[in-house]
Each structure stands twice: as structure tokens, then as C-alpha cells.
Amino acid sequence: MNRQEDAENEGLLVRRIRNGTVIDHIDCGEALNVVKILGITGTTQEALSIATNVQSKELGRKDIVKLTNRELSKEEVDRIALISPSATINIIRNFTVCEKKGVEIPGEIVGIVKCPNPGCISNTNEPIESKFEVLPKGLRCHYCDWMITRDITSHIL
Amino acid sequence: MHHIISIGDFDRNEIDRLLDHARQIDAKKYDKNALYGKILAVLFFEPSTRTRMSFESAIARLGGTSVSVGSVEACSMAKGETLADTVRVVSGYADAIVIRHPREGAARLAAEFATVPVINAGDGAGQHPSQTLLDLYTISQSMPIDGIDIALVGDLRYGRTAHSLASALSLYNARLHAISPPGLELPSALSADLKDKGMEIVEHDTIDDVISALDVLYVTRIQRERFPDSASYFNVTSSYRITPELLADAKKNLIVLHPLPRVDEIDPRLDESPHARYFEQSKNGVPVRMAMLMKVMQ
Hints:
The complex is a heterodimer of chains A (157) and B (298). Chain A has helices at 3-13, 31-37, 74-78; strands at 20-27, 48-56, 60-68, 88-93, 96-102, 108-110, 131-135, 138-141, 147-148.
């Protein structure tokens, strides 16, 4: 199969949507983590399409997530920056890209990552959500100061 | 509302001001009714002798009183109540809460739910700011803190007093000598953090290697449960034991500190030596904690 056929087949996989959000340029293999980090579960009302290992001019290979009839807020999409900083967000209205933006790493993330420290108070039945400060070298637990410096996805709740 | 949760919440000036205040209190220059009518809730979920009693003594010396839950078994946490609910309730009974808890981050959580000031008196392997402040105060009684050579000896991985003190000393341009058994080294994240702040950290296998260069020898307890069997525990503790012979080559003004309780880490023969300051250090808990209570309760 040549490159053009590849692209045509993949075009079928990632059909255009009328309204919603397209998360493009996701680092290859991270699409399912993006869905997880956005808190989208199997019970979601919106149609969700995920394409992985798609050809990309910039990245070589990339993942794409499309969510119909839902426009993600900036706060929601910025969480994605933790695992895929090159991702772009396209807000689609009537088949047209109305907004296109990159993701920005937030200063703090709440309720997304579990503290790996088994002794941390956030890993108990207390009525709190996990909270991490985002620093250049990793994530610091707001409660116990534990640093997550690598493999953030394995700590996503 | 002012909480004291971590020594990292203090800047250098705040620490120096608090130590100056403790010095005035030590010299009996303070209002003995400064906290008259105020109540301190002592919420200790772990055993304690020195920290608990010195906080109770501190509030009493300032004219206030303290209330406590007694033993952990006797309190509502034993019935499954969350710490968040406990501190909300206790906030209605007292003007400040001093808390010790086995979980890291417990004091920060308490501060989020309390409606009165919270002081952290130790949270798991996390922070113990009042101990650090009294450690700094004790050092300052013998020498300027700036630029000292200090060795931290013992369990540097789980020892909260060592973590807090190391963080504070990064504000004083101190050189840190870390001496610990394999597996109980300073956590790499803390070590990296301190180095980022410009602190020089040198690791040594034995105390002998560095004793002649030290101004302060800070000894911490190595807990037996960190070792698989008694033989390896005794093997390690004996090699980190501080004796008068070990200090033969020490500087004349070296001081030996220990947050106490000690078990076998310091030979009792050292107690009468001018180097030994650990009982003075323990006594300093009262003026330093008086200064802390006045900072948050006045």
C-alpha cells in the first residue's frame, strides 16, 4: 500500500464531525490517556472517535480524538498538556474549525493524578481531591510534597 | 489566619524574627498573660512526650490553657471520623490547633478545614517545623547559623526532623554532610531541591571521615523496623554510635544535637561533655513554641 492509499484509508477512519472538539497532534499512543485525563468514560452521551498511529507531517505518527457535540473548555484541554504538550485543539461548528489552539501546562492540577506516596493524606477517605503543583521538573503533591518526575500517565486516577 | 505547616512556608527573615522573639522569651521579657483566656487544642494521633508537653507548657506559661483528646483510641477518629470533620469540630472548642498525625500532609489538610490557626507538630515522614525552629535556636545559642558545616546522621530517608532542618539550613548557606546507612539516604527529590537552592551536600560513609570539619553533629534515631532482622539493625546502629572517643578530633566548639528520644545513638558518657546540647535543645522547645503560639494566636 502506498503513502497516498494509507492517507485515504486513514481519512475514512477519522471522518469530519459537524460540531464538537477535535484533539489533534496527540503524541502517538497517548490517545487513550487523553480520554482518561478528560474524564470521558464509556457512559458518555457524546459520540467519541479515537484514531491512533495516524500519519502526520509534523510528528511522523500521531493520535487523534474527536468528540461530537461537546466543546471542551480551556481548563479541560490544558490537562492534556501534561502527557502530550504538542496536542492542538480544534473547536468545530458546522464542519468548520472555529477555534484552534495549543495546550498550555496548567499551574495546578486537581483530581487527575493520584499521589504515589502511600502515606499521603490524599490517599485516604478524607473529603479532598488530589492536588499537584506543576513545576518544571515534575508534579509536586500539595499535601505531602512528593514529586512525580516521570511516567505521569501511570498515576492518572 | 496564620498556620504553621512547613518550614518551607517561612522565609529567612521570618525565621530570624521568630528566633529573636524566642530569645526575648528565654530572657523572661514577655507578657505572662499574652494568651490569657485562649485555648489550645492538642490533637495528637501519635505518641509524643517532648513536643506535646512543651506545647502544653508553652500555652500555660502565656496564661492560656489546653484541651486534648487523650489517647487516639479514645477519640472519634477511632470511630471512623475523617480528620477534616474532626478539625472542623475542634475549631469550635479552641483558638488554635496543634496537630501530630501519622500521615504526610495531614496538617495541610487540617489547615484547609479548620477555622482557627493550625500548627504542624509532625506529619508522618513529612514536616516538623517547631522542631526545626528549636534546632535552629539551639545552634544560634552557640554560633551564627550562617555558613556552618553540619552533619545529619542516621535515618535521613524517613526522619522528618532531618528533612525540615535541611530545608531550613538551605536559607543559611550551610554545608550539609549526609551520613546514613544504605537505603536510608536523604530522598533524592529533597536532595535535588536543596541543591537547586544552592546548598552543598556531601555524602560520607562514616562520621570519622568528616568529624574534624564539623560545627554541628545532628544525630537522629534509626528505627529498628527499617531493618529485616535484629542483627543487621545492631550492626548498623553500632557503626553510627556517637562516643567521646569519636569526638576526640572534633572542633572545640562542635555541638551535638538530637531531637530525642535517643536509644543507642549517643553514648551516655557524652552527656556531661561540653559538646552535648541535646537536653538544652529539648528545653528550648518551650520558648520557641511560646513564640510560635504568640505568632498564630495573638
